[in-house]
Every structure is written in C-alpha cells, then in structure tokens.
Write a structure and sequence with these properties.
4-stranded mixed β-sheet, 3-stranded antiparallel β-sheet, 2 domains
C-alpha cells in the first residue's frame, strides 16, 4: 500500500527485504532485526504489523506544570493503581501541533463517567477551587482561567497509556476532531493541518486511530480530513 508517497510494509514484507539483502539471516533472528531497525529509527511502526521507512517524531505527552503534577499525585494517592484516568495539559499537549499557540494552560483530567463527582469532591477537599465537571462550551468560555481543572468522562476502551495515565496521540487526534471541550482551545480551521501533521510526521498507529474513531463515531469526520493518499487506510 502507498500512503503519501510512502510504502507501508508488513512484517512479512520487511522479512523478505532483509533476506533479500542478506540470505544468511535465520528466521528466528528476523524479528530481532526488525526491532533493531525500529530502535535505530530506520523504520517506524504505524500499525500492529505495519511499518514505513524513516524516522518519525515521538509525541510528547508528559505533564509539566506544578498543578498538573500535584493533581496526578493526588489521584495516585487516592485511587488504586488500576483506576483508569488520563491527565494532560492544553498548552503543553496541543501546542505541539498549533500555529496559534495556547497561552492559558488548563489541566484536563478524564475519568470513568461514574466517578466524575467522586473525583470532583476529592479535588475540592484537597483545596482546588476552579474545577469544571464536563462543562458546556459556554461554561468553558465563561469560567475557565489559568490552571483551571476540567474533569471529563473517559470514553471506555480509549487508547491511553494505562501505566503512566497519559494520553496517546491516537486518542488526542480524534478528540481534537470531536471533543466540544477541546474545540474551545483552538480555531477549527487549524484542525485539518493538525491532523495531517500528526499522520505524516509522528509515530501513529493507524489501526488504533481508526478503531478509536469508530468508537467515537468520528470515522466519517476523520475521512474528510485525511489526504486522498491516505484514504485507503481508513476504508479497509
């Protein structure tokens, strides 16, 4: 398959290329060779068994502000390790892709919808003041300020970094398309360029992206934003 002028290779395709250049490779060593190529940046994984040649940028999903770090620590101290949540910041996370940078930083905390009020009370009892729970667009524009905390329902089976409680680029890309809350922080006209930048320049799992788009009923919206050279990926 060709995407944006690049060939997408399956694991089998790569094995055949390796054997073609060096027939002495043992079958048992081929997976190690592919892993080595990926670690060196010679290839990038874009699916469970799909690769493209060349290095792509890693998505920065670490939290940086003191308030975000304190909220993250509070969550870890008050909930079990298998309690699913994801925390990120609007400025730190979104500014990687925006032309008009966000100056006002807001902490986004997503949790299971049944725990929205419980988490709100946990934060409130800890002394946090400006907390919005699943706010409307009007509430975001009216009440949001620097270092506000927005608590949102976490879509079940979202592609998140469960161990570190961080957002993945696949989840962020789709949320940027269809989250009414996130849409408050950037101009809608920037979304097509943001999606293209993510698809072409970052390490993205296309299969994960597609599955999450389906889960959020946003696959048709995604298809309207991807270049024609990539349509085949999301039509399979």
């Amino acid at each position: 398959m060709v995407v944006n002028g690049e060939l997408i290779y399956s694991t089998e395709d790569l094995m055949n290329l390796i054997l073609k250049s060096n027939p002495k490779y043992k079958s048992s060593s081929l997976y190690n060779k592919i892993e080595e190529m990926e670690n060196k940046g010679e290839i990038s994984r874009v699916g469970k068994t799909q690769y493209v040649f060349g290095k792509r940028k890693s998505f920065h999903n670490e939290i940086e502000s003191n308030i975000a770090k304190k909220v993250d620590k509070l969550m870890k101290n008050n909930y079990s390790s298998n309690f699913e949540y994801v925390i990120y910041e609007t400025a730190t996370t979104l500014n990687q892709f925006l032309n008009h940078l966000i100056n006002r930083n807001v902490v986004i905390l997503e949790v299971n919808k049944f725990f929205l009020e419980h988490v709100f009370n946990t934060l409130k009892d800890a002394g946090y003041k400006n907390i919005l729970v699943n706010p409307s667009k009007e509430d975001v524009f009216r009440y949001i300020e620097e270092n506000s905390i927005i608590i949102l329902p976490l879509i079940s089976k979202s592609p998140i970094d469960k161990k570190n409680k961080r957002i993945t680029i696949e989840k962020l890309a789709i949320d940027m398309i269809c989250s009414a809350t996130l849409n408050c922080f950037y101009e809608g006209a920037e979304v097509p360029d943001m999606i293209k930048d993510i698809l072409f320049n970052y390490k993205v799992r296309y299969d994960t992206l597609k599955n999450y788009a389906k889960r959020r009923h946003a696959l048709d919206k995604l298809k309207l934003l991807v270049p024609k050279t990539m349509e085949a990926i999301f039509n399979d």
